């Protein structure tokens, strides 16, 4: 479903990616080279992790598990059992781990990029001289309108994928919690549950962090516009026509990134997920 949701919004995603790379004269920052290296290392790790895990599995599982990928058929020579197990495990990790990690990393970078553009707009608004700001008020408002349109499109495009990513991450966390609370001893399946649970934690926290950052910066822009108006309102002639654009900017609505319109991605969502996990863990303990 995640793949089909991406294909369905392919054109809009390309438009958002192109728009995120366009910097006007107000925006002077560029992606940090260390950030690029870190992202490159993450992508390399996501590609190497399935290979490492697939090569590790045959040495940890018993023969019943290794014959699963051969549909119950047991080869006379063990090397063929190992080969079939490695191939099956590799495909499983590519589909359920590598693809998921690359998708959520891509969305995090896209959301982060628009958060950076909003932050740069806010810094430009704060640092620009008042007289210069009034002269270029229409241009400033048009720049913000373009950012606002892109963020609304971002909200529309990522609505379903964010829901699927959060749902998958929460299910992985619940599955890992149930396994470790019920398991009497740690076995080879603990590796899978640990990895998927850690990936789920990282996906939830990073997506919520960058999504809530957009909300916070928009609120800061509104506050800054209001502060500029209050600071100079005594010096405004002709009924304040010069600050019309700033008034429009202050009255703009705040945009929330959400998962299918059901869950707003705010920082408080992390506390809700932790509370749900705690409650779920208590239920499992009481049912043992």
From TrEMBL:
It is a multi-pass membrane protein. The chain crosses the membrane at residues 38-56, 90-110, 162-183, 189-210, 269-287. One of its GO terms (cellular component) is plasma membrane. Pfam families: 7tm_7. Signal peptide: none annotated. Residues 130-157 form a coiled coil. Its main location: membrane. The keyword Membrane applies. InterPro entries: 7TM_chemorcpt. GO terms for biological process: sensory perception of taste. This is Gustatory receptor. It comes from Argiope bruennichi (Wasp spider).
């Amino acid at each position: 479903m995640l793949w089909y949701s991406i294909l369905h919004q392919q054109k809009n995603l390309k438009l958002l990616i192109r728009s995120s790379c366009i910097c006007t004269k107000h925006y002077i920052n560029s992606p940090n080279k260390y950030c690029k290296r870190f992202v490159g290392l993450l992508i390399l790790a996501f590609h190497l992790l399935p290979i490492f895990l697939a090569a590790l599995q045959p040495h940890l599982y018993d023969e019943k598990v290794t014959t699963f990928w051969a549909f119950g058929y047991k080869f006379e020579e063990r090397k063929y059992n190992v080969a079939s197990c490695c191939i099956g495990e590799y495909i499983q990790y590519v589909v359920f781990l590598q693809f998921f990690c690359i998708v959520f990393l891509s969305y995090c970078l896209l959301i982060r990029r628009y958060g950076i553009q909003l932050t740069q707009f806010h810094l430009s608004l704060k640092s620009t001289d008042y007289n210069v700001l009034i002269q270029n008020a229409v241009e400033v408002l048009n720049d913000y309108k373009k950012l606002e349109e892109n963020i609304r499109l971002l909200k529309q495009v990522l609505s379903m994928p964010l829901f699927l990513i959060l749902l998958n991450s929460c299910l992985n966390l619940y599955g890992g919690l149930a396994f470790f609370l019920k398991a009497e001893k740690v076995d080879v399946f603990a590796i899978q549950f640990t990895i998927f649970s850690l990936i789920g934690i990282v996906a939830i926290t990073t997506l919520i962090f960058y999504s809530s950052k957009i909300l916070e910066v928009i609120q800061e822009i509104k506050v800054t516009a209001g502060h500029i108006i209050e600071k100079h309102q005594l010096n405004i002639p002709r009924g304040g026509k010069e600050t019309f654009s700033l008034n429009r900017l202050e009255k703009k609505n705040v945009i929330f990134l959400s998962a299918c319109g059901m869950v707003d991605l705010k920082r408080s969502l992390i506390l809700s997920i932790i509370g749900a996990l705690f409650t779920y863990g208590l239920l499992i303990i009481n049912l043992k």
